[in-house]
Amino acid sequence: MLKLGEKIKSLRKQKNISQEVFANYLGVSFQAVSKWENGNTLPDVTMIPAIASFFGVSTDELFDFNLYETEKNVDMICAEAYKYRYSDAAKSEEILRQGLKRYPGNDIILNNLLYTLDFSTRADEVIGICKSLIASTKDDSVKYDACRILAICYKENGNSDLVKPTLEMIAEIYFTKLELMALLLVGEDSYEAAQKQKNISAESLIDMLIICGKHLKDSGEKEKATAQFRIAEKVMDAFKEDFVESRWFNSTVYDYTDGRRAELAELLKSL
Q1: Which of 124, 92, 105 is nearest to 65 (CA)?
Q2: Is 114 within 8 Å of 149 (Cβ atoms)?
Q3: What is the number of other CB atoms lying within 10 angstroms of the CB of residue 248?
Q4: What is the rounded distance in angstroms from the CA atom of residue 39 to the CA atom of residue 117?
Q5: Are residues 209 and 240 in the same domain?
Q6: How far apart are CA 36 and CA 41, in angstroms?
Q7: Does residue 253 have a pLDDT over 90?
Q8: Which residues are CB-contacts of 49 (< 8 A; sequence separation ≥ 6)?
Q9: Span 99-115, mean pLDDT?
Q10: 93 plus 33 within the same structural domain
Q11: Is the pLDDT of residue 241 over 90?
Q12: Closest CA to 146 of 120, 117, 103, 182
């Protein structure tokens, strides 16, 4: 197994690039790269994903780790750290730090580490890790979680102008983008996102209640099924007084649910 410095040197020569070019990409001096390659120092752990990305390899490949064993062990490390995430963040962080010594730059461990750091007192560290993950990870779930955390960190530290562009990097299917925008932005941007998410959430809630009710009905639990259907009706009725922002919608949730109300009436009649 090659040492990290030797691996970096080997990969750099394979790409036929100088230490200066590599250093410029990472934002460090070529002397720093030289020290890594000679085994005098090691790169900062948060730089490992960027180094791996530059060479087009995974962090496991960078360290010549066995992929299966790495995934298994990383899962165990993160599961152990999770036990203490909410009761003892310092202990959780220490477990993850030890994991990073064993698997430097592992994006799953770094992602979990973010949950142990205080966004107010350690904002620079949080932002650095998030940016590294966003730029380098090949795991979309890690990337979009890092975007979410970065946006929250910006919001909590007064960098409101950076919140929206960060949230825009999140694919629509992750973390309910509109909800995050409503919570973390301000003014018209927050209002627009909240209005849109409100309608999506209401329609989704009605759908979920009906689905749950149908399952309970088919399972013979008529009383529980009736309760689900009645709640769905109440949600629909609650939106009778809602108003429409014509620039975003043509009708309210209440208007949209005519078909659902007819379906509910038939379902309740069948119980």
Answers
A1: 105
A2: yes
A3: 10
A4: 30
A5: yes
A6: 5
A7: no
A8: 59, 105, 107, 110, 132, 133, 135, 136, 137
A9: 92
A10: no
A11: no
A12: 117
172 shares a domain with 198: no
pLDDT higher than 60, residue 81: yes
Chain-centre distance for alpha carbon 177: 11
Query: How many other C-beta atoms are found inside a 10 Å radius of the C-beta of residue 103?
Result: 21
Reported confidence tier of residue 163, pLDDT bands at 50, 70, 90: very high
What token pair was written down for 211?
A: 């689905």
Q: Which helix (H) or strand (E) holds 214?
A: helix 187-218
Residue at which a domain ends, from 132, 163, 184: 184
- Domain containing residue 117: 67-184
- Please say if the pLDDT value at position 64 is more than 90: no
How far is Cα 47 from Cα 193, in angstroms, rounded to an integer?
A: 35
Is residue 131 included in any domain, yes or no? yes
Residue 59, domain member (yes or no): no
Which whole number is the average pLDDT over 187-204? 89
Q: Are 237 and 255 within one domain?
A: yes
CB hemisphere CA count around 59 (13 angstroms): 27
Please choose, from the candidates 55, 2, 6, the residue with its C-alpha nearest in 3D space to the C-alpha of residue 26. 55
Please check the confidence at residue 232 and state whether its pLDDT lies above 70: yes
Decide: 176 and 197 in contact? Cβ < 8 Å.
yes
Spatial contact of 219 and 235, defined as CB atoms under 8 Å apart? no
| Structure tokens belonging to residue 156 | 């909590």
- Specify the DSSP class assigned to residue 251: S
Whether pTM exceeds 0.90: no
- Give yes or no: residues 91 and 180 share one domain: yes
- Side chain identity at 252, as an amino acid letter? T
Specify the pLDDT at position 104: 85
